[in-house]
Every structure is written in structure tokens, then in C-alpha cells.
């Protein structure tokens, strides 16, 4: 992995990073770059297999993106994540640590709570948050 200074360089070389075509505030095609077609097809196939697994970070990422972007773009995004994960595993020499499907919920739990409180306040309710007592 010493060939690539960062994971972004590897993703760019592999053609798995999204393009950025923006001018005057208008966003145009975000088509991915040209790269190794063999590596790209292997990564997207691995992403489709990871999407069918249950209870994993990659399947949760695919499910989140599929609703907004569609299945093919979601598969490319998950393939990009797999490539970045492989880069870090090989560079650091550490085993893969699964984050789980709850990762996205835990990451944005505070923002989710604030949004719900704001919605209730907009409807004319006063909200006081108190944690539930933990069972012994």
C-alpha cells in the first residue's frame, strides 16, 4: 500500500471515487472515473453480496443509499467503502472491525433526537426529555 499515499489516491486509481463536475453552483454528472474495469466489477459484485448480508455496516450503508440514489449507485458506493476498508487493513496490519448495522443510528442519535423535539415544538408541545430508568 506504500504505492498510494492515501486511501483517496487508491480509490481514484481504481476508478471508484465519484466525479465532481460543478460550476456556478450547478451540479452536473458525478460519474466515476475510468479505472481498472476488473477491480471495479469485483468490488461492485462484492458490494452486492455485502448488501444481502444481515446485520452488517455495509448492508446498512447499502440500504440507506439505495432509497436515495438507486441500487447501482449504492453498490458503487459500498464498493468504494470495501476498497477503503481493504486499504486500511493492509496499511495498518489490523484485523477488520465490524461496526454493525446500528452504526449510522448511533452516529446521528443526538441529531435525530433534536429533530424530533423540534417537530413536536413546532406543533405546539413543550418537550422535556428524561432518560428512562434502567432495569436492575
Give a written overview of the molecule.
There is one protein chain. The model has no long low-confidence stretch (mean pLDDT 85). The chain has a two-stranded antiparallel ribbon. It has one domain. It is extended, with a radius of gyration of 19 Å. Helix 2 packs across helix 3 (57-69) and helix 3 packs antiparallel against helix 4. It contains 6 helices and 2 strands. Strand 1 (22-23) and strand 2 (26-27) form a beta hairpin. It has 136 residues and is mainly alpha-helical.
List the helices and strands and how they pair.
Blueprint: H1 7-14, E1 22-23, E2 26-27, H2 37-52, H3 57-69, H4 71-92, H5 103-107, H6 109-122
Antiparallel strand pairs: 1-2
Amino acid at each position: 500500500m506504500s504505492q498510494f499515499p492515501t486511501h483517496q489516491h487508491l480509490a481514484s486509481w481504481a476508478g471508484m471515487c465519484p466525479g465532481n463536475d460543478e460550476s456556478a453552483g450547478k451540479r452536473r454528472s458525478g460519474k466515476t472515473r475510468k479505472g481498472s474495469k476488473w477491480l471495479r466489477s469485483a468490488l461492485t459484485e462484492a458490494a452486492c453480496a455485502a448488501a444481502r448480508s444481515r446485520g452488517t455496516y455495509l448492508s446498512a450503508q447499502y440500504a440507506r443509499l439505495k432509497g436515495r440514489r438507486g441500487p447501482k449507485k449504492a453498490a458503487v458506493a459500498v464498493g468504494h467503502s470495501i476498497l477503503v476498508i481493504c486499504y486500511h487493513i493492509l496499511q495498518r496490519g489490523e484485523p477488520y472491525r465490524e461496526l454493525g448495522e446500528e452504526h449510522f443510528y448511533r452516529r446521528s442519535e443526538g441529531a435525530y433526537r433534536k429533530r424530533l423535539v423540534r417537530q413536536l415544538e413546532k406543533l405546539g408541545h413543550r418537550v422535556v426529555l428524561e432518560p428512562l430508568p434502567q432495569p436492575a
